[in-house]
Automatic annotation (TrEMBL):
Pfam families: Amidase_3. Keywords: Hydrolase. Residues 268-423 form the MurNAc-LAA domain. This is N-acetylmuramoyl-L-alanine amidase. GO terms for molecular function: N-acetylmuramoyl-L-alanine amidase activity. Its EC number is 3.5.1.28. Gene3D superfamilies: Zn-dependent exopeptidases. It comes from Halarcobacter ebronensis. It catalyses: Hydrolyzes the link between N-acetylmuramoyl residues and L-amino acid residues in certain cell-wall glycopeptides. The keyword Hydrolase applies. One of its GO terms (cellular component) is outer membrane-bounded periplasmic space. GO terms for biological process: peptidoglycan catabolic process.
Length: 430
């Protein structure tokens, strides 16, 4: 038991030598020696004895328990050894060290476990008496409570109490008993993990460019009341969305940070320059005077040749602020040549955004109408080299829905719904 002797006597050189013996012999016997290798790393660079190592028995490898850095406790050498049998009791690191005046045997230590309604107890009773049992305070970092008391004139009790079931062991060497708490590092790590708030960041390493439609001299669609301009409500929703996405770890850029006009054909330039993963353009819809009370609802569009008169009408409304020299047939030919995988990805993004917008807004108003996911020839999306969508957050011309679009809570609900849709898209299409 050379290693045990070394650690009990605080002989580091001898301890290092015996650790190397344990590792070498253990490997020969194909035993797990990782715990000894880990212990040896603590002494990297320290001098060791160069005496020739001796071969030890297998049962020594299996049964020896490490005790590190034990120093002799300060004691009162003038204490009356005829009256008291225990010289000193101290706590150090993860150990309690008890020194007796005379040599002892294993019969001097009795151990038992107990459990209360919310704690576990390891109880050690030692044959002996200690004059400073009452004033002595014992503590080990990571153990809830350690109590020392003279149970009777012949028995000193040391109790470990904790919310978790501690693993404690003890060693005896001549006139010393060492009580050691194992795996305290694991306990601390578990506590740290349980208390830590896990923040999931779905947007890490994702770049999103948001485009608030219209702006400046281009007011967009106009509602029934004074200054109910599309450019204002879509900008507010875009700013709320920017904030939500940034909280979720996305890198977000805006095509406009103020009320200014940007040509439709220039809005995707930023997205391409920033190598965005997706491009999202936010707008509000409008109906003809004859259908103001009829048309309402949220719609999400992706770029492709239009397949419905409704999609063509909405696209024409959003495209009118930009002047294009393409004829109708040229535009159609151009749209037919678009990258099909990008259209497919844009379609998937549209579905996720539409579904999540409806869910969030219907928490506030159950009658929010689903305008669906549609294809359309929107020129603001043409230049994007990544999946892109155009969202119509509602009809600004509708008597009820138009007013909702200028309500802060409703704008925030729209933003959260769009953000959730973006999260869903990336989760399913990494």
């Amino acid at each position: 038991m050379g290693y045990l002797k070394a650690v009990l006597n605080d002989d580091k050189n001898l301890e290092i030598k015996n650790l190397k013996i344990l590792i070498s012999t253990g490997k020969q016997l194909k035993r797990d020696v990782s715990k000894y290798e880990k212990e040896l790393k603590k002494y990297d660079g320290q001098a060791v004895s160069k005496e020739r190592p001796k071969i030890i028995k297998l049962n020594e490898i299996e049964n020896v328990k490490k005790i590190d850095n034990i120093k002799k406790p300060k004691v009162d050498d003038n204490a009356d050894s005829s009256k008291y049998t225990i010289k000193a009791v101290v706590s150090r690191d993860n150990m309690i060290i008890i020194d007796f005046y005379d040599s002892i045997t294993k019969d001097f230590v009795d151990f038992k476990e107990d459990k209360t309604s919310n704690t576990f107890q390891d109880i050690y009773q030692l044959k002996g008496n200690f004059k400073d049992a009452y004033p002595t305070k014992l503590s080990i970092n990571g153990v809830d409570q350690i109590v020392i008391k003279q149970k009777d004139s012949k028995t000193l009790e040391i109790l470990f109490e904790d919310k978790t079931n501690l693993k404690t062991i003890y060693f005896i060497n001549r006139n010393r008993v060492v009580l050691k708490v194992l795996d305290l590092n694991k306990k601390k790590n578990k506590a740290t993990i349980s208390k830590a708030v896990k923040v999931y960041k779905p947007g890490l390493n994702r770049v999103v460019v948001l485009d608030a439609g219209h702006g400046g001299k281009d007011s967009g669609a106009i509602g029934s009341e004074d200054k109910m301009y599309e450019k204002y409500t879509v900008f507010n929703v875009t700013k709320y969305l920017e904030s939500v996405l940034k909280e979720r770890g996305y890198k977000v850029y805006l095509t406009r940070n103020s009320d200014r006009f940007i040509k439709v054909r220039n809005r995707t330039v930023l997205a391409n320059d920033k190598h965005a993963d997706i491009f999202v353009s936010i707008h509000a819809n409008a109906a003809h005077k004859s259908k103001i009370k009829e048309l309402q609802g949220i719609e999400t569009f992706f770029l492709s040749p239009a397949r419905s008169e409704r999609a063509k009408r909405v696209a024409a409304l959003e495209n009118q602020s930009d002047i294009s020299n393409m004829s109708g047939s040229t535009q159609k030919a151009f749209l037919e040549s678009l990258n099909r995988p990008r259209i497919t990805a844009s379609h998937k993004l549209s579905i996720d955004i539409q579904r999540n917008m409806l869910y969030e807004t219907r928490l506030l108003h159950k009658d929010v109408e689903d305008g669906g996911v549609r294809e359309g020839p929107f020129w603001v999306l043409v230049g994007a080299q990544m999946p892109s969508v155009l969202i119509e957050i509602g009809y600004i011309t509708h008597p009820k829905e138009g007013k909702r679009l200028f309500n802060k809570k409703y704008q925030e609900a729209l933003a959260v719904g769009i953000a959730n849709g973006i999260d869903s898209y990336f989760a399913k299409n990494p």
